[in-house]
Fold:
Amino acid sequence: MLNEFKDFIAKGNVMDMAVGIIIGAAFTAIVTSLVGDLINPIIGLVSGGVDFTNNYAVLAGDVPEGASLEAARETGGSVFAYGAFIMAIINFLIIAWVVFMLVRMVNRVKDAAKKEEAAAPEAPKGPTQEELLMEIRDALKAQAS
Structure:
C-alpha cells in the first residue's frame, strides 16, 4: 500500500496539481494586492471615495443609529449587510477584469511565439522513402540495360 501511495504521489498530474495550487495561492495574493492597493484607490479617487461596505438594514435587534456595520454586528442584532455584498461583487468584477487582462496578455505572448515559430524557415527535407525507392529502381533498371 505504501508503494502504491508513492506511485500515486510521484505521478506527474498530482505534482502538477500541487504546483498549480501553490502558484495559484501566491498569484491570489498578488492579484488581491494589485486590486486592493493600486486599483481600488484609483477607482476611489475617480468615484469620489464611494464605499458601500457600511450600508446595511437592521432586521432585528437594537442597533444605534448611524453605527458602522462592525458595531451593528457586535450588538448582536440581525443585520442585512447588502453594502458589504455590493462591495464584494465590485471587488470580484475588478479582480476578474485584472485576471482577464493578464491572461489576455499571456495569450498574446504565446501567439506571438507560435507565429515566430511558424514563420521560421524549415530546414530542407531529404527525399521521401518513395523517392529513394524509385531512384533505386531506376538505377537497377539502368544497370540491367
About this structure: Strands lie at 57-60, 78-80. The first helix runs from residue 2 to 10. The two ends are 73 Å apart (CA to CA). The helical segments are 2-10, 12-47, 69-74, 82-119, 129-144.
